Amino acid sequence: MKLQKFTDIDFPNYFQLVNNEQVMEMITERSIQFGEAKKDYQELLENNSIASNFGSFKILDVISNEFIGLAKLEIKDKDSNEAEIGYMILPQYWGKGIGSAVAKELLEMAVAQTSINKLNAIIDPKNLASRKILINNGFVSKEFIDFDGLPGELLEFKI
């Protein structure tokens, strides 16, 4: 797999992901409809412009260039010393080790940035697969939180 930043022309891939009920079940507990997805995508593109090494990336098959999902290493502003990692993968690619590979790649990208000293990940507490991936990569559970009205677990990795 390879990671490439989302651009203006990639909305169809993004929408395919966020409009999928299975993908979104443990993220928003609902699929995202077109209008909301368009708004969210504009925010994603704005965040992508903050810094070249941070933002949201397409996960692509290295050989076929087929779209697999989204990986994010997101900062809030140029002066951030912490970032959030996350990923969403289309169901046909689940159970193939892609989540583990993406988490490892994002971790390596973050460690390479001298400005970042902490990574956060927020997951649904029922998402045992993502929790296992994060724990196996050195993340530690910090707290259970209400995240926009949904249950969340905050995990942290100190660099």
TrEMBL record:
Q: Output the superkingdom of the source species.
A: Bacteria
Q: From the Swiss-Prot or TrEMBL record, what is one GO molecular function term?
A: acyltransferase activity, transferring groups other than amino-acyl groups
**This protein's UniProt keywords:** Transferase
Q: Which InterPro entries match?
A: Acyl_CoA_acyltransferase, GNAT_dom, N-acetyltransferase
Residue ranges constituting the N-acetyltransferase domain according to the UniProt record: 1-159
Signal peptide positions (record): none
Q: One of this protein's Pfam families, by short name?
A: Acetyltransf_3
Q: Which PANTHER family match?
A: GNAT FAMILY, PUTATIVE (AFU_ORTHOLOGUE AFUA_3G00765)-RELATED-RELATED, N-ACETYLTRANSFERASE DOMAIN-CONTAINING PROTEIN
This one is known as: N-acetyltransferase
